[in-house]
Amino acid sequence: MHMPIYMDLHLLPGINAEDAADAHFLDVKSQDQHGCKCFTYWVDKEQGQVFCLIEAPSRENVAELHRKSHGFVPHKIIEVAPDFVRSFLGRITDPEHAKKNDKDLLLIDDPAFRVILLVALPDPVLQQEQYGVSLAQQYITQQNQFIREQIAKHNGKEVVYAGNSMLGSFVNGSHALAAAREILAYGKEKQQSFSINLHAGSPVDTQDTLFGETLQLLERMSKWVKPLGIAVTPAVKKLLSKELLHKADPDMFVLDQKDEDLLANWVNALDSYHTTEKQVADYARLANMSTSQLYRNTLRLTGLSPNELLQKYRLQKATQLMKEKKLSIAEIAFNCGFSSASYFTKCFRKAFGVLPLAYMDRL
Predict the structure, then answer these.
(1) Are 201 and 213 in contact (CB under 8 A)?
(2) Helices assigned H by DSSP within the chain
C-alpha cells in the first residue's frame, strides 16, 4: 500500500543550489529513520523558497525528518497527487540533466514558480442547444485539440483539470502569453467566446491544494472579469516586457492589485449572501467601498452593474446545482436566491436562451 505524497514549502531567503543540495543529501541520509522517501525538490532563489516532494506516513513525519536532518522546518506541508505535480512542474524525480558539484551531489537549480494559463470554454450544453449534438461535439473536439497544440507548441504542460476549462503550466511568461494570443485568434476565427486568463504563483501557498491561490483567482477571473480577450494579473505583468504587454492592446486587460482585492471581496460576499435580501449598499460595505465606488469598479472589471453581477452569480450557481441532479427546478431556484421558480425560469431563459428543464435534459 502506497503512502501519501507531500509537498512542503521552506522559506529560506538567500538559499542557493549548493545549500539546497546539502540539505537534500541530509534528508535522504535520514529518510529511512522516519519512514519517508525523498523524491526531489525545487529551488526558487528569487523568492527564497524550496519545495520538497516526499512520500511519508504523515505530515508530522515530513516535518520531523527535516527538523532532525538539518533543522529547516517546513513553513507548510500539503498532500499532493504525483500526476498533478508532474503536469504542473514537469517531473516528480530529480531532473535528468542536473550537474553535480565537487561533493558528487546533484545541483538542482530548478524553480517551481509557474505561469498558469486558464481557458474557460463555452458551455457544452448550450453549444448542443445551438448547433445540435453532433456538430457541437465536432466543434468541442476541434477547439480542445487546438488549445492542447498551442500549450505544447509554446513549451507548456497541459494540466488535467476539472470543469469546463483547459489549463496550461509554463515556466516562461512570454510563452504563456504567445499561446494565449493564438488561442484568442482561433476563438475569433471560429466565433467562439473564450475567457483567457493568466496568473502566476508557487505550488504551495496559503491553501491546502497545489497552486491553490493561483487556481482560485484564475477561476474567479474566468467567471467575472469582462471578456475583452486576455486577462493578466500583476504577477504575470511583472514577468513580461513592455513590448509584449502594452496598454494600447485592445485584446489585453491588465488587472491591478485593487482589482484582485475587489474580485476576492465580491465573490466572498456573494458566496455568503447571494440567497439573502441584501442591497447593493450592503455589498459595498462588505467590499469596503462606497456604493458609487463599487458600481464604478464592478462595471470596469466585470462589465456588469452590481445587481447584474448578483443575477449572473445566482444563475451560475443554478447551473452547478443542475449538474449535480439532486434538486428540482423549484428547489434550485430557492437555493440560489430567486423569489419563485417562474421568475428563475424567466431569468434563465433570458440569459442562456434555453429553459432550465431543457438544459437539465441535455446534461
Answers:
(1) yes
(2) 17-30, 59-69, 82-89, 124-131, 133-153, 173-189, 212-224, 234-237, 257-273, 280-286, 291-302, 306-324, 329-335, 341-352, 356-362
**Residue 177 scores a pLDDT above 90:** yes
List pLDDT tens digits, range 10-50: 999 999 989 999 999 999 999 999 999 999 999 999 889 99
Secondary structure class of 179 (helix, strand, coil): helix
Q: Please give the grid coordinates belonging to residue 280.
A: 447593493
The whole domain housing 177 covers 114-255
Domain CATH code at residue 205: 3.30.70.1230
Please report where in the chains the cell 516562461 appears, as a residue: 172
The Cα–Cα gap between 146 and 182 comes to 9
Last residue of a domain, one of 225, 255, 285: 255
Give CA–CA dist 137/171, Å, rounded: 32
Contact 159, 115 (CB under 8 A): no
CATH (domain of 320): 1.10.10.60
Query: Does 84 lie in the same domain as 161?
Result: no
Element (H, E) at 53: strand 49-55
Q: Looking at residue 94, what is its pLDDT?
A: 92
* Together in a domain, 248 and 261: no
Classify residue 96 as exposed, middle or buried by CB count within 10 Å of its CB (0-12, 13-18, 19+): exposed
Grid cell of 143 as nine digits: 477547439
